[in-house]
Amino acid sequence: MNKLKSLTLEQLIPKVLQAVLNISLIFLAIILSVLLVQELFIFGQILLQKENNDYKLFLANILLFFLYFEFITMIVKYFKEDYHFPLRYFLYIGITAMIRLIIVDHDHPINTLLYSLVILILIIGYFIMNITPRERPDSRRFFKN
């Protein structure tokens, strides 16, 4: 309690906002986990239906499952990496979402081509991110007078 009294307003506001963000992300992770389990039940129903052989529906549901999975993984990484979202997870999610769009909405060739180009751009971005050195120069040295 004594620690809270010694905090200034500029120090307290970010701590409160960080706590609100953390609690919100925990609730989001719980909701996504419920949806992930629900998607597993949908898989089971699709597999047990003898008359329904719609592989596109099954593939779309698998990719939706991976989208939930990747968002949950990203939230876990957020907490493990000291409140930081790794950029590569956003790229994974974007690629998976675009693949799902191609599978679900492939009636228009122009749209499919555009989705494919978006995937290519995301993969190029991922490649550039991986060849860039992890250690960044200290940005403060660039702002010295």
UniProtKB/TrEMBL annotation:
Q: Which family does it belong to?
A: Belongs to the PsiE family.
What NCBIfam families does the record tag this protein with? PRK02833.1-3
Source superkingdom: Bacteria
Q: Where can this protein be found?
A: Cell inner membrane
Q: What is its main location?
A: membrane
Tell me where the transmembrane regions lie: 12-37, 57-79, 86-104, 110-131
What Pfam families does this protein map onto? PsiE
Name its species.
Siminovitchia terrae (Bacillus terrae)
Signal peptide coordinates? none
The record gives the membrane topology as:
Multi-pass membrane protein
Q: What is this protein called?
A: Protein PsiE
Q: What's an example GO cellular component term for this entry?
A: plasma membrane
Q: Which UniProt keywords apply?
A: Cell membrane, Membrane, Transmembrane, Transmembrane helix
Q: Which GO terms describe its biological process?
A: cellular response to phosphate starvation
